[in-house]
Design a protein that fits this description.
The chain has about 150 residues and is α+β, with helices and mostly antiparallel strands. It has a domain of about 90 residues: Alpha-Beta Plaits (2-Layer Sandwich). It has 5 helices and 4 strands; from the N terminus they run ααβαββααβ. The protein has a 4-stranded antiparallel sheet. Helix 3 packs antiparallel against helix 5. The longest helix has 17 residues.
């Protein structure tokens, strides 16, 4: 029972008490990210870019909204005529909820969404938690090439 030889082969493993995503992510009150994928009608890509270049920075700069536009770009490879926007919500899910509720009341944003919808074929959003071992993404100026990866935790 208590022999040292047996202790080499028998290990009691405590059951996991939390999901992998919670173990690897930063705390719930840290930043939450939303990545938006907009598939734009090919003939409307320039109009879409002009419209978003005008509207999205206004949200980013408005201190009343707990969100920040980390990056906006068009894809070159993979999905063509696609725009991607990465938003940070400081304060996690509560900040996201607050921002979405305020946007529902914002008439300028509603007009922007109506105009934008005429330019889109499809759109998709995804929420992302920060991994605890990665640095926070910072906005950068100039042309850059990014690789988007997806990890499936098992």
């Amino acid at each position: 029972e208590g022999s040292w030889l047996r202790s080499l082969f028998v290990h009691k493993v405590d059951p996991r008490k939390d999901a992998h995503s919670n173990l690897l992510a930063k705390r719930e009150t840290s930043s939450l990210y939303k990545i938006q994928f907009h598939n734009v009608k090919p003939e409307c890509l320039d109009a879409y870019n002009s419209l978003t270049e005008e509207a999205l920075p206004k949200l980013h700069e408005d201190a009343d909204y707990p969100c920040a536009l980390v990056g906006s770009w068009n894809t070159w490879y993979g999905e063509q005529d696609q725009a991607v926007h990465l938003w940070r919500f400081s304060g996690g899910y509560p900040a996201l909820t607050e921002c979405m509720n305020k946007l529902k009341q914002n008439q300028d944003y509603a007009a922007f969404r109506r105009e934008r919808s005429r330019l889109l074929l499809a759109r998709r959003n995804q929420l992302l938690l920060e991994f605890s071992f990665w640095n926070e993404p910072l906005p950068r100026r100039g042309p850059h090439v990014y690789e988007l990866r997806t990890y499936k935790l098992k």
